[in-house]
Amino acid sequence: MSRPADASIILGPGEGRAYAMGAISAVFLADEAETDAAYSISEWRLEPHSDGPGKHAHEAHDDMFYVLEGVMSFWVGDAWIKAPAGSFVRVGKGVAHDFRNEGDSPARMLNIYIPGGFERDMPAIVDWFAKQR
């Protein structure tokens, strides 16, 4: 459903636009249609011992992550870092990054993508993960 950018968004637990990618899932809470393409916000869940998308960079976007649960590992620039719940990671435009859950329990993180539009790539990302199995 499209809403004007100045409209409020109220979602209950588990609501939003869900994407399943095997051991990873994402729920988009606000995206370009609702934010006038200013940002996208999504919640990601990774099962234990699961890899992310692989090292990549966004040439025109900042990518921010706030770890809600568990311990995530992030590749930022040229090194892996551990980020337990409560950690914040900002990856600037053009910086190579990746994420994974190396732990024995699920991990969840909030992702803020500025400017918006990331959700446009989700069908191709879901397809890519399906082909990796």
Task: Characterise the protein shown here.
The protein is 11% helix and 44% strand. The chain has a single domain, classed as Jelly Rolls. The mean pLDDT is 92. The protein contains 2 helices and 10 strands; from the N terminus they run ββαββββββββα. A hairpin with a 2-residue loop joins strand 6 (71-76) and strand 7. The strands form 2 sheets. A 6-stranded antiparallel sheet has the order 1-2-3-10-5-8. A 4-stranded antiparallel sheet has the order 4-9-6-7, with no helix packed on it. It is mainly beta. The chain is globular and about 40 Å long. The chain has helices at 32-35, 122-132, and strands at residues 17-21, 24-30, 40-46, 50-51, 62-69, 71-76, 79-84, 88-91, 97-101, 107-114.
| Main sheet properties | 6 strands, antiparallel
Which class in CATH terms? Answer: Mainly Beta
CATH topology: Jelly Rolls
Count of helical regions: 2
Summarize the structure.
With 133 residues, the chain is mostly beta strands. The protein has helices at 32-35, 122-132, and strands spanning 17-21, 24-30, 40-46, 50-51, 62-69, 71-76, 79-84, 88-91, 97-101, 107-114.
Describe the structure using short key phrases.
Jelly Rolls; 2 helices; 10 strands; 44% strand; mainly beta; 133 residues; six-stranded antiparallel beta sheet; four-stranded antiparallel beta sheet; globular
Explain the layout of strands and helices:
Elements: E1 17-21, E2 24-30, H1 32-35, E3 40-46, E4 50-51, E5 62-69, E6 71-76, E7 79-84, E8 88-91, E9 97-101, E10 107-114, H2 122-132
Antiparallel strand pairs: 1-2, 2-3, 3-10, 4-9, 5-8, 5-10, 6-7, 6-9
